[in-house]
Amino acid sequence: MNKLIRYLLILGLVSLLPGTAAHPSQDGSLRFEVLLNRQMLRPADANVDFIDSLGLTGNRLIALAAKDRFFLLGWGGIEPVVRISANPIDSFAYTPDGLLMIVRDQELGCMDSNGNISKLFALPHKAMGISAGKYVMYVYDRYEGQSMNGLYAVAQGGRYTQLLRIPTPISSLVEMDHSILFATRNAIFHYDLKTKELTPRTALTDDERIISIETDSSTGRIFFSTDRKLFELVDDQAVLLSDKFGGVLRYFDKGLIIFNTGKKLLVRIVGLPKTRLTDKP
After folding, report:
1. Residue 27, CB half-sphere, CA atoms under 13 Å: how many?
2. Pure H helices in the chain
3. pTM of this structure
4. Are 174 and 213 in contact (CB under 8 A)?
5. pLDDT tens string 90-99
6. Are strands 149-154 and 137-140 parallel, antiparallel or unpaired?
7. Which CATH code of 2.60.40, 2.40.128, 3.20.20, 1.10.3210 fits the domain covering 1-40+171-270?
8. Based on the number of CB atoms within 10 Å of its own CB, is 203 exposed (0-12), middle (13-18) or buried (19 or more)?
């Protein structure tokens, strides 16, 4: 049996609480936390459809969202905190200084401490994705149906600059120093913000779609995933870590968070090895 699934089943039975410390043991062995599963949801939220966004607040809580509400996940479980009465939530991300930025329809807004959303400005297209950089936010077209898809940098004051246009939508993006890594369909590209050079890094088979990409800034490791597979990018090669579990990725406190929205399962993996998570024969 796949090691990842086996550990998840074990931890699901013992029902670890969100916030439990999990660090690599001295021998570097894998450790897992189940931060959310179906059983942890309230009956009223059992059928909620989470969107493919995941945020980390300044006080170490995990922010999740459905189209009509936000949730905070921390010690003691998950709680809905804000319900949205108007335009549904398409995506969200926190700025480096902790502001919650929200894409709804064709506008970018900011939520204050009272849960009120203020419109900042109109976006080029509807339902764009959003990711945080060190000094700017990035918004990008992420759905099929357009002849060209844009990537934009949003600066303070609502000024945004188009960085590039490509024929395929962008599903996920992460900033690395003076460059960007982004996923589009089954491929990952590198974009140098200084030279404006766009370089392919790796690609999966044509029938696969990359939904998330994330980095460990302390080691430079790069992870990406489909809805059911987890990979690491090593020397421009896709190294398969698991073919049983994938989702939205975030790296936090020496661990990789994986959120599978369809299964309503969120886990954190610490001590992730650089080899596939399968048992030897």
Report:
1. 3
2. 3-14
3. 0.86
4. yes
5. 999 999 889 9
6. antiparallel
7. 2.40.128
8. middle
